Amino acid sequence: MYAPDRDQDLRWIQRAIDLAALCPPAAGAYSVGAVIVGENGTELASGYSRATGPREHAEEVALAQLPQDDPRLAAATIYSTLEPCSQRSADRTPCAQRIITAGIPRVVIAWREPALFVDDCIGYEQLVEAGVVVVELPQLAAAAKAANAHLRLT
To answer: Positive or negative CA dihedral for 78, 6, 132, 14?
Structure first.
C-alpha cells in the first residue's frame, strides 16, 4: 500500500482541491476533486464533479478512467476534497461503495460532508468498517470548501 509522508498527502490533496475549482457550480451538489495515486507515488487518474456529466461525482469520474480490475488499485490512495458519499439516488452507486469495490486501501479527505443534502453521510464510517484506512486533513478543509462557495456553507 502506498504510505506517503505528510508532505505527499498535502501535495496530493492540494491537487484535488485544484481540480475541485474546475467544477461547474451546481445548486444541488458539491464541487469535489479526486486523485488516485499509485503505490509508487504517481497519479493514476483524477476527476472532478460533473466533469463528464451533470450527475458524476469526482471519485466516480476518476475510477472510471481505470479498469475495474486494475491491480494498481490494491495499493493506491484516493485523495478527495470531501468525504466519499454514502448514499445516492437508486440508480447510482455511492462513492464509498465504489472505493471499497475497487479495493483501494487508503482514502485521504479534507473535510467531512455536512448535512446539507444528506442528513447523515457515513461514507467515512463505511470505509473504515470495510478495512480502509481513512485520513482526514482538516487543516485543508477551508481550501476544499472554497470551491463550494455557491452553496453558502457555514
So the answer is: negative
pTM of the model: 0.92
Distance CA 122, CA 116 (A): 14
Report pLDDT for 153. 66
- How far, in Å, are 60, 103, 141 from residue 97 at the CA level? 10, 10, 23
H/E element, 123: helix 123-129
For 93-141, write each residue's pLDDT tens digit.
Answer: 889 999 999 999 999 999 877 766 667 787 889 999 999 999 999 999 9
Q: Are 84 and 107 in contact (CB under 8 A)?
A: yes
Largest CA distance in the chain: 40
Strands 77-82 and 33-37: antiparallel
CA gap 60, 6 in Å, rounded: 25
Q: What is the residue whose three cell numbers read 479526486? A: 34
